[in-house]
Design brief:
6 strands, 2 domains, single chain, Alpha-Beta Plaits, alpha+beta, about 210 residues, 8 helices, elongated
């Protein structure tokens, strides 16, 4: 009985810790979702283990947890044009289920170490992004503007006057607007200056990266 309470407690603590990190960064699949995923994976693993004691296949239910979690992960992945977001959240959902299964099998050390490693990675990665801002790196700007070629030329000229070379340019027309994706190498400071200048152009309707 004590071990059962320990497993549920660990599932809530570790799943909740990873969920709080997602919720702190305003991502889908937050605290409650990750707690439920971890508890669900824990329960399925225990049931799978019990099935083995009764002569059934102990891996049958547990194996389905790995594939079954895909529908939750897929629901958090969003696509807006060429931009995809939610992949990290989908991966965290998948690994939280693995942590729940590890707790279910009594692998408490592995579960705790994995949860700690993910938290260090997630928070540490965001701290290092600040250093990357000082270096030139590939970035893509997505714009919608008036459907005139001189507007596209003005946008390119506004970028290149900051000594930034546009490496790739794609243009599509939809809803009587031009949709541009421009790939170039910026520093974080250059990117802020350029986007501010582009948004002040009356021909540019929206801009994001």
């Amino acid at each position: 009985m004590e071990e059962m309470f320990l497993k549920v407690f660990l599932a809530l603590v570790l799943g909740g810790a990873l969920g709080m990190e997602r919720q702190y960064h305003d991502k889908p699949a937050g605290y409650a979702t990750n707690c439920l995923i971890c508890l669900g994976a824990l329960l399925f693993t225990i049931l799978s283990e019990q099935m083995g004691h009764l002569g059934g296949d102990p891996g049958r239910i547990a194996a389905q947890v790995v594939t079954g979690l895909g529908f939750i992960g897929a629901g958090s992945i969003l696509r807006d044009g060429n931009k995809i977001s939610g992949l990290t959240t989908a991966a965290s959902v998948w690994v939280v289920a693995a942590i729940g299964m590890a707790i279910g099998y009594g692998q408490y050390v592995w579960a705790t170490l994995t949860a700690c490693a993910i938290l260090i990675l997630q928070f540490g990665m965001r701290r290092t992004i600040g250093f990357v801002e000082f270096l030139k790196h590939y970035d893509t700007i997505y714009l919608t503007c008036e459907p005139r070629w001189e507007v596209v030329e003005n946008i390119t000229a506004a970028i290149e006057k900051h000594n930034v070379k546009v490496l790739k340019q794609e243009i599509t027309k939809q809803d009587n607007q031009f949709h541009l994706s421009l790939v170039a190498t910026f520093t974080g400071k250059e990117f802020c200056k350029i986007t501010k200048e582009l948004l002040e152009m009356p021909e540019v309707h929206s801009l994001y990266k």
